[in-house]
C-alpha cells in the first residue's frame, strides 16, 4: 500500500472535478485543447468543467496564446479535388453534416444534397438557405417543387439569421485550420 495515489476532488459543483497536480497540467490542457484548438475562453470552459487547479485560468491563457497551430492563418489547399463544403443541420436534432463538393454550382449542390442528406435522412419539409446563386437556380427550384420542400431564404448580409449553420462554420473553420494538412 506504499504506492497508493491520493486524488483530491472538488465536490462543490454537481460534477466532481479532480485536482490536477502541477506536472500533469500541461498534459491535461494539451489533450483538451488539441481536440479542435478552440480559443482561450472555450478551452477554459472545457477544462473548468472537468478539472481544477489553482492557476488554471492563467495557465490556459498562456498556453493557448503559444499554440502554434492556432497562430496559423491562410487558405487551405484543396483536398482530393474538393474545394467547397456544403453544410446541413437538422434543426430538430441539431445533427450536422458536412459534405465536400468539387464546385459550388447548382448541379453539384443538388447532387450532393440528394446523395448525402436526402438518401440518409429523407426529404426535409423545410430548408433554410442563404442567398447564394446556386440556391436561386431553376434546378434547385425544380427540385424543391418536385420533392415538396418549402424554402426559407436568410436575409442578405445578415448571417445571424441562420445562426446554427454559421456557428458550425466557425467551429469547422477553426478545427480544419488547426490541423496539419501535410
TrEMBL record:
Cite the Pfam families for this sequence: Integrase_H2C2 (PF17921), rve (PF00665)
- Ranges for domain Integrase catalytic: 54-182
* Domain of life assignment: Eukaryota
The Gene Ontology biological process annotation of the record reads: DNA integration
What is an example of a GO molecular function annotated in this UniProt entry?
Answer: nucleic acid binding
Please state what class of enzyme this protein is.
transferase
Known EC number:
2.7.7.49
**Record's protein name:** RNA-directed DNA polymerase
Recorded source organism is Trichonephila inaurata madagascariensis
Amino acid at each position: 500500500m506504499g504506492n497508493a495515489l491520493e486524488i483530491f476532488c472538488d465536490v462543490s459543483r454537481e460534477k466532481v472535478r479532480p485536482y490536477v497536480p502541477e506536472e500533469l497540467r500541461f498534459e491535461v490542457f494539451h489533450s483538451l485543447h488539441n481536440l479542435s484548438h478552440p480559443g482561450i475562453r472555450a478551452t477554459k470552459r472545457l477544462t473548468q468543467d472537468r478539472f481544477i487547479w489553482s492557476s488554471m485560468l492563467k495557465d490556459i491563457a498562456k498556453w493557448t496564446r503559444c499554440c502554434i497551430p492556432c497562430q496559423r492563418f491562410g487558405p487551405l489547399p484543396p483536398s482530393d479535388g474538393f474545394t467547397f463544403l456544403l453544410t446541413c443541420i437538422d434543426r430538430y436534432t441539431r445533427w450536422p453534416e458536412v459534405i465536400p463538393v468539387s464546385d459550388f454550382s447548382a448541379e453539384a449542390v443538388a447532387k450532393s444534397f440528394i446523395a448525402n442528406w436526402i438518401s440518409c435522412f429523407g426529404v426535409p419539409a423545410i430548408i433554410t438557405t442563404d442567398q447564394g446563386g446556386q440556391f436561386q437556380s431553376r434546378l434547385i427550384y425544380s427540385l424543391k417543387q418536385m420533392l415538396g420542400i418549402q424554402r426559407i431564404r436568410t436575409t442578405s448580409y445578415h448571417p445571424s439569421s441562420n445562426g446554427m449553420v454559421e456557428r458550425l462554420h466557425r467551429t469547422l473553420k477553426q478545427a480544419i485550420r488547426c490541423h496539419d494538412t501535410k
